[in-house]
Amino acid sequence: MTELIYKEEFYKIKQACIEVRKEIGNGFLEKVYENALKIELDELGFEVETQKEIKVSYKNRIIGNYYADLVVDDKIIIELKTVKQILSIHKAQLLNYLVAANYKLGLLINFPNDDMGFKIIRIPNFRLIATNKSNKKN
User: Fold this and answer.
1) Quick count: other Cβ atoms within 10 Å of Cβ 100?
2) Least confident piece of the model among 33-37, 59-63, 84-88, 111-115
3) Is residue 2, in this structure, part of any structural domain at all?
4) Across the beta sheet with 105-110, what order do the strands follow?
5) Which helix (H) or strand (E) holds 55?
6) Is residue 100 part of a domain?
7) How far is it, in rounded angstroms, from Cα 41 to Cα 132?
């Protein structure tokens, strides 16, 4: 069985999402949830960066950039949505962030406007994880 990446951090982040949803409810834009989640994560002792620039390079030249909603402890990217349904394009977006930033784990968190819950999808960077495993064998 595969062990969850950053298991302890994941459960704390999930708890922070529960608290945010309890406090402010539904119907807000992503930025409101981003700000509230940052406060919760700061209070839990995480180092949190908002709108962190992620540069994409090719042959040592910058060819593009992304902005991650939240980066936790310089190892987990959180992408927030407020959509009715998570689509494959949302997952692909986060995976691109992970590959460009060379991070192992991303969390796609949706606070849908018409639902009182929230959903977290773990997106691992399998390319990086596989590389790390093969390097450990050598």
Assistant:
1) 17
2) 111-115
3) no
4) 48-58, 61-72, 76-81, 105-110, 119-124
5) strand 48-58
6) yes
7) 28
Instruction: Residue 118: name the closest of 3, 4, 36, 1 by CA.
Output: 36
Question: pTM to 2 decimals?
Answer: 0.89
For residue 45, name the pLDDT band (cuts at 50, 70, 90): very high
CATH code of residue 111: 3.40.1350
Q: Tell me, rounded to whole angstroms, the distance of Cα 117 from its chain centroid.
A: 18
User: Is 75 a member of any domain?
Assistant: yes
Q: Is the pLDDT of residue 1 over 50?
A: no
Residues 13-28 have pLDDT tens digits of 999 999 999 999 989 9
Length of the chain: 138
> Is 88 part of any domain?
yes
In terms of Cα–Cα distance, which of 73, 71, 91 is closest to 81? Answer: 91
Total number of domains constituting the chain:
1
DSSP strand pairing (105-110 vs 76-81): parallel
- Residue 33's domain comprises 7-137
DSSP 91: H
